[in-house]
Structures are given as C-alpha cells and as structure tokens.
Amino acid sequence: MSAPVGPGTERGCAMRTCYQSLVRFLQAEDGPTAVEYAVMLALIVVVCIASITALGTNANKVFNNVALNTSVGS
Fold first, then answer.
1. What is the C-alpha separation between 71 and 68, in angstroms, rounded?
2. Region for 5 from its dihedrals, namely left if φ exceeds 0, alpha if ψ lies in -120 to 50, beta otherwise
3. The pTM is what?
4. How far apart are CA 12 and CA 20, in angstroms?
C-alpha cells in the first residue's frame, strides 16, 4: 500500500514548498536581470569572435603578400 498524498502529508508539504519557491523566483527581479546579462555577454562574445576572425583573415592576406613579394624579389 502506498503512502497517502495530500495537503497534510510529507509529499504534499514538499510540493507546496517547491511551488512557493517557484513563485518567489518568478516574482524576483534577479531572474530577468541575470538573463539580460547573459544575452549581453553572448552578443559581446559574437562581436569579439567576428572581429578576431576578420582581423585574422586580413593579417593572413598581408603576410601572404609579404611572403610572395619577398620570394619574387629574391
């Protein structure tokens, strides 16, 4: 036979505590603020990766041009 489930049982109290914690989390201002910071950080990372990739591509072209001019000039 299983244990009874209801408002007065241990499982009912655990569910009520979980529900109250969820309600407090949704009402708190810290949750949306953390999400906003995460989105800003993700955008900053994307911009950094794009700029480093572009800079690396340009630097590679310059070094290839210098190497080509050096080999032709020799």
1. 5
2. beta
3. 0.47
4. 12
Going 31 to 35 to 38 to 40, the CA torsion angle's sign is: negative
**Could you identify the residue written with the tokens 């906003």?**
36
Q: What is the mean pLDDT of residues 4-21?
A: 73
Q: Give the whole-angstrom CA distance, residue 57 versus residue 61.
A: 6
| Block residue for tokens 């914690």 | 21
Tell me how far apart the alpha carbons of residues 62 and 67 are, in angstroms, rounded to a whole number: 9
**Which residue has 């009520």 as its token pair?**
16
pLDDT for 34 equals 81
d(CA 49, CA 45): 6
CA–CA distance, 65 with 71 (Å, rounded to integer): 10
Q: CA-to-CA distance for 47 and 40, rounded, in angstroms?
A: 11
At 62, which amino acid appears? V
